Amino acid sequence: MTMLDDETLQMYVEEAKEHLESIESDLLAIEQMGEDIDEELVNKVFRAAHSIKGGAGFLGLNTIKELAHKIENVLDMMRNRELVPNPEIVNILLLAFDRLAELIDNVEESNDMDISEHVAALSAIASGGVPESKSEEAADKSDEAAVEMQDDNKIVVKNSQGQVVFEKELDLDQVTKGGKFLYLLELDLVKDVQEKNKQPYDVIKDIRSTGDVLDFKIDLEAIGSLEEDKFTKTIPLYFLYATIIEPDIINTLFDLPDEQVKVISGQDTPAASGTEQEVKEQIEAEKQEEQMQKIESEPKKEQVEEEKIVDISSSSQKQASKQVAPKPAAKKDTSDAKPKAAVKTSKHSTGVHAETLRVHVSLLENLMNLAGELVLSRNQLMQAIAQQNMHDIQAASQRIDLVTSELQEAIMLTRMQPIGNIFNKFPRVVRDLARDLGKEIELILEGKEVELDKTIIEGLSDPLTHLVRNSADHGIEPPEERIAKGKDPVGKIILKAYHASGQVNIEIKDDGRGMDAEAIARKAIEKGLVTEEQVRSMNEKEKLNLIFLPGLSTKEQVSDVSGRGVGMDVVKSNLDKLGGQIDIETELGKGTTIRIKLPLTLAIIPSLLISVGGERFAIPQVNVNELIEVPAAQVKERIEKVGDADVLILRGELIPLLSLAEVLGIERESKFESAEGEDTFSDKYRTDKGAVKVVIAQAGSFKYGLVVDELHDSVEIVVKPLGRHLKQCEGYAGATIMGDGRVALILDVVGLAKLAELSAVNVAEKEKTVEIEEGEEVHTLFLFNNAPGEACAVPLDLVARVELIKAEDIEEIGGKKVIKYRGGSLPVFALEEVANVEHLELQGDLVVIVFVMGGHEVGLLATPPVDAVETKVKIDVFSLKQPGIAGSTIINDKTTLIVDVYEFFETLNPDWFIERKEVAEEIKKEAGEKKVLLVEDSDFFRNQVKKFIEGEGYKVVAAEDGLVAWNYLNEHPDEISVVVTDIEMPNMDGFELTKLIKESPQFAHLPVIALTSLAGEEDIEKGKAVGIDDYQIKLDKEKLLQSIFNFLSKMQKQAA
Amino acid sequence: MEETVQKRKGPFQASCFYLGEALCGIDINLVQEINKQIVYTAVPHAPDYVLGIMNLRGRIVTIVDFGKKLGLGCTKITDSTRIIIVNSKEEQIGLMVDRITDVVNGRWEDIAPPPANIKGIQGRFFLGVCKVKNRLVALLNVEEALADELVKA
Amino acid sequence: MPEQEINFALEGDVVRDKVKEIKENVLKLIQDKEDVQLVLDLKKVSVLDVFGIGLIFACYNSLKQKNGRLKLINVSDELKKLFDMLELDKYLELA
């Protein structure tokens, strides 16, 4: 080895790399243009090869020089138009440049590396020969030892004669972890030991002590018996050997001829003799062998994701991150050892490379400035301290604070790299894939300039590659299929990056087959990953997300292209590590869009500090939607139970609640107890003073309320990863060290929800998906089945509780059905007792919907499942109308009967409602015929409300709009005693009407009760502002009637 | 498939400590430091042998009840309890042990394969045993001892 | 089936030049015999080279053809180390 000056060498390497940077895209462009040769472009590539050659010659790097020279020859012919670039030729050039890059990466060993294949291929082109077709080349290589991977981590290793030597169950990733290589060594005791004057003991000991012998075999057949004379000629031994010794030197080390050392797998491009071309052909040979030997590989329809096939197309990954020098060795070791043909790291090359980064000069200047500022501020501080000048100390420390933050930001920015760095490798990847798969694919890149933290970019490389491959492999159909479907034969894959709401979004969009949620679900059930029951309750999105479960692959056959044992689960876990999320949108037959969301920086994030049970935790600000403190007085109204879940009512939305203390199993310091007789289910959420502090946490479209003890400040924290023993804890995204040196865990919003199994009641999510148009009524309905399949609904507001019972629990007492309930008994009824509906079979599991009617608790029997939905109610009040049924509507494509709860129970138990009626009669008698003015634009609700107000004994004048109501008032000034009005109305809404009423001296005295389906904070405030006296939720008849009653009796008293 | 026979030659030094009644040793090259302060922040829902995490000069270090991890009961914290910070797979991990004793010198060749059970700890966690000054020191295979049993949630 | 035990002591250098002779001798002993256990006494063996190893394997193969077994006794420590390297104990009995 020539004595090379480290510095000079380093400079050469850096320069060479710069030359090599754009070669790939240039060559692809040249290929595209075909006959239309762009001389300038070819010249550019030529000059690059030429420079590399020159420097190599000077430094004695002969192999590099030779390869570069051969490349030069071909390019020269091209620029002289003696040669037309075709895909075959360009391919050879690409591979040659790949090899050149490898040589440069391992510059110190480059002279020992083999380039014979590339030289041969390039020479062939230069001398006018047609590059051999793949199958021919493959045939030439069929005498090489083939290594076959079968599924289930089994490998079959054959020697040069094609005989099976080892058949073993092996986790290749595990074996080659830490940079090891797996070899098949063939040691002939006679040839390689005796004849070389070595001792068998020593030789074998050497092998065994420098690596792991995973398996060992003696070829007894070759040795033969005493009768024969074979054993004096050959005694072959086989070792299945894992070691960190590299392919380049292992032959020399053990003094074995090349054919006896076969590389099976390893971190580097597996190559016994070191060329990528050869290995590619090896795989081709294996593929053909596989087809020929059906016995070996069972014809399987589905291959498990664990199948590993040495994938060398990924050698194009090496081109990644050209701006960033080789990935750190550390990363290699901690990676989950996916078989990647990797960028060579400083571990392999003998430390010539330092890791480098490209940074904008302006950024550096900024850093210089900030450093300067910091120095100034520090001087100021020192001076101020010396002088004991408190004021100056404060000023200086403020300045330091500011400058430090800016400095921090600026340094973070230096780590930002454009995503184009990894995007740029994809044209080649897609091109190669398309060729291999016989498809036509166009790749469009958008947003190459979007910047991300360096670590994130590095971590994205693999997942993105897998996803792009998936698109090409599973997504895009072969041209014939596309044409048959009426699509453009050329499939499109769009790889796009953009910023949105504080995150970086990356989309991989294809116009291919789309993903079949049902097929995925079925596959998951087959593999035992989910049960049929669970699947039944899943929506499409949830089914699609099953694809992220480990062990799932819906491919019919695994192509060696993407079936690498790198499943979607690995993609997801990689993204999780980066703090990213992944989302699938698909339409069968049309295409799929996979969206990845990532935080902008990895290391420092703004967070909210909270505490629970005296322990502090941090929640990333990006996941914090809102902070709510529900005062003690409002807790009863705003926190309710819906089925199994506790929810918070926030501006009309139902938000599931999670007690952080409960999820984490932390003892809370404060214990709050409700007054006697009150609902205690919400106690666990309350602080000492009875209030409930909620952090509305959000991740993607998923929202819930996290109940905590204390809310603290918002701080910027440095995220530190948790050790491997804690990686499985789903609720944490890392840990941080706070100002006082103490450690606080960072909560993972999604993980916490999983811990609490919140996904079952995704009420919030459902509500998000409904688009609310202006002016339309939105109500929350509680859905259930009378008989199975007979969909019914009641307004959720009226539902007090929902209980799950068994049919056996129902007892009959005096002809009435009851169940034991909370220490007493609850009368229960079936809908058929009043309405003409299907018979409800009392068997198995049943649901009891508990209402409070006339001060009594009653239950309505139903069949599970139950659900709640926020929906625009278009209620048909005409058809299907009957006693007990208010009307019908269509929900989820099903006709749903809206139960008139009031009427239902009144029919059954008229005596319950007598009391108030009596009083109402009284009032009527005393007050005369006082009327209630009801203003409501929806027919349905107008009728409903009118009916039950009348049912109370009042007279009602109904108006369908504010304007109509106002006119009526003016025309009949003394008729009306109370106004009950809706808010949302077309011509004049409730607020305006109220305003008019309250501002007019004539009607200002009229109590105005507003009816609304939205009892949000804002509305209430607004209402108060215009003078609304009371807010009632629509269809809560009891309360409304009570309210009317109150106002009227008050007025009575006043009048009296 | 483990090769428990020591292939190494030459001298070694081991940092020794007690886990329950077992006198254990760790190759001193793996030991970073030994702390007296038993300080950590609990991590709810962590595996039972993880006591918590601590701040070691800016790095988050997982603190493990070493005895518990190896199958003994919970380690009682006394005055002699210590935390040994070891380097394992690019991470620093703190092992809480009962009592530290002297560093011992030995030779790899003198190591005998471990018995199936050493005072309640399974033999598989050890590289081997060696006799030093009339005491039997069981050398720990740190990687094996710290291997996380992957329980898929 | 009663098993016949045949003992044979190897002596001196079990190396290339001598191996042929030893081979002939062993063949004479086991030829036409089924079900035998051949016991090779290695006490007096001074050197065993590659051909010696080959010889042992060839013995094994021959015996296997005849449904027999091979056992080596009085194996010196040094030879044992060599045999361990070859995982010989997988094929035959060592004592």
Q: What does this entry look like structurally?
A:
The complex is a heterotrimer of chains A (1056), B (153) and C (95). Chain A is α+β, with helices and mostly antiparallel strands and 1056 residues long. Chain A folds into seven domains: 6-131, Up-down Bundle (Four Helix Bundle (Hemerythrin (Met), subunit A)); 146-299, no CATH class; 361-414; 424-599, Histidine kinase-like ATPase, C-terminal domain (Heat Shock Protein 90); 604-764, OB fold (Dihydrolipoamide Acetyltransferase, E2P) (Beta Barrel), CATH 2.40.50; 770-908, CheA-289, Domain 4 (OB fold (Dihydrolipoamide Acetyltransferase, E2P), Beta Barrel), CATH 2.40.50.180; 915-1055, Rossmann fold (3-Layer(aba) Sandwich), CATH 3.40.50. Helices cover 37% and strands 25% of the residues of chain A. In chain A, strands 26, 27, 28, 29, 30, 31, 32, 33, 34 and 35 form a ten-stranded mixed beta sheet that branches. In chain A, strands 17-21-22-20-19-18 form a six-stranded mixed beta sheet. In chain A, strands 9-11-12-14-13 form a five-stranded mixed beta sheet. In chain A, β21 (692-699) and β22 form a beta hairpin. In chain A, α4 packs parallel to α6 and α30 (914-927) packs parallel to α35. The longest helix of chain A is centred in the middle third of the chain and has 26 residues, at 361-386. Chain B is mainly beta and 153 residues long. Chain B has one domain (12-143): OB fold (Dihydrolipoamide Acetyltransferase, E2P), CATH 2.40.50.180. Chain B is built from two helices and twelve strands; from the N terminus they run βββββαβββββββα. Chain B has a five-stranded mixed beta sheet. In chain B, strands 3-6-7-5-4 form a five-stranded mixed beta sheet. Chain B is globular. The model of chain B has no long low-confidence stretch (mean pLDDT 85). Chain C is α/β, with parallel strands linked by helices and 95 residues long. Chain C has a single domain, classed as Transcription Regulator spoIIAA (2-Layer Sandwich). Chain C has three helices and four strands. In chain C, strands 1-2-3-4 form a four-stranded parallel beta sheet. In chain C, α1 runs parallel beside α2 (50-65). The model of chain C has no long low-confidence stretch (mean pLDDT 83). Chains A and B meet through α14, β24 and β25 of A and β4 and β5 of B.
